[in-house]
Design brief:
Elements lengths: L19 E6 L2 H9 L4 E4 L12 H10 L4 E5 L11 H16 L4 E4 L10 H13 L3 E4 L9 H11 L3 E4 L10 H11 L4 E5 L7 H8 L3 E4 L2 E5 L4 E2 L2 E2 L10 E5 L1 H12 L7
Parallel strand pairs: 1-2, 1-8, 2-3, 3-4, 4-5, 5-6, 6-7, 7-8
Antiparallel strand pairs: 9-12, 10-11
């Protein structure tokens, strides 16, 4: 049964703002931190060190069982590196998508490209159809930031039935891509949702929103935990060097709260 005493829908003032904050999570622990910090929607992944891969169904089930009001967009990405997939990999993606939808995902994040970084529309339309047939949201992830013509590609995604696009404006960080994000928001705000992500935090979210007029942002709200067994007996499983060699990244409840506090103080009517 759901742990109803964990329910905090709307408790944080940020949840009542004009803006949606989506938190990028890599585990059940991350999802709990995001939820307890006041987030209403997360993107659920595994292997965030690889840019985010498909999460285990067990992780999704734990999240939905214990935090049923939390909206979960599940990542479907079978491997690291880019987004040009073999048919074997795509078969895995379709199977994972169906499994995650059956187990409560509110949406699926995905993206398929050809070798020239144009959209692989056959694969994208098949994924979108699976998602829409389940009555859920289709989200095209940051594969979008690899394309050459963002306006042409956005039209293709709209035609395919995609609901939302996660993008940094074709730059490494969203603040660097603010000009394109603004243009996309102005042109497509009534046809598809623009979700700005990469490098978004409590220190820059207000400036990003003012510059771009986006109403949705995506953030990792990153903190750190220590695992003393990471380096032992000359054997290392560390992802980092120096003093951080024992550390791994997690979602920080406090960082979520700070981000939501910033967006709560803004109104889209005043931009």
């Amino acid at each position: 049964m759901a742990n109803t005493d964990m329910e905090r829908s709307g408790e944080m003032s940020g949840n009542r703002s004009d803006y949606i904050v989506e938190v990028c999570c890599g585990s059940y622990y991350d999802a709990r931190q995001a939820f307890e910090g006041g987030a209403q929607r997360i993107e659920l992944n595994s292997a965030l060190a690889l840019g985010g891969l498909t999460p285990a169904t067990a992780t999704l089930c734990l999240v939905k069982e214990n935090m049923p009001s939390l909206k979960v967009v599940a990542m479907v990405r079978p491997r690291g590196a880019g987004f040009c997939y073999t048919w074997e990999e795509f078969s895995e993606m379709e199977a994972a998508c169906s499994d995650l939808l059956k187990n409560g995902a509110d949406g699926i994040a995905f993206g398929c490209l050809k070798e020239d970084a144009s959209l692989d529309q056959e694969k994208n339309k098949r994924m979108t159809a699976l998602i829409k047939d389940a009555g859920k949201e289709a989200v095209f992830h940051r594969a979008f930031d690899c394309v050459e013509d963002p306006f042409f590609v956005m039209e293709q995604l709209i035609e395919a039935g995609v609901d939302r696009v996660l993008t940094s404006g074709l730059k490494d960080k969203a603040m660097e891509g603010a000009e394109l994000l603004k243009a996309l928001q102005e042109r497509y705000k009534d046809r598809i949702q623009i979700l700005a992500g990469s490098g978004v935090n409590a220190d820059n979210v207000c400036e990003l929103i003012r510059k771009t007029k986006v109403t949705q942002v995506h953030s990792s709200c990153k903190g750190w935990k220590r695992d003393a067994t990471t380096v032992r007996n000359g054997v290392s499983y560390s992802m980092f060097q120096g003093e951080q060699r024992y550390m791994y990244d997690v979602v920080s409840k406090e960082m979520v709260e700070k981000l939501l506090l910033q967006t709560a103080g803004m109104s889209s009517k005043n931009l």
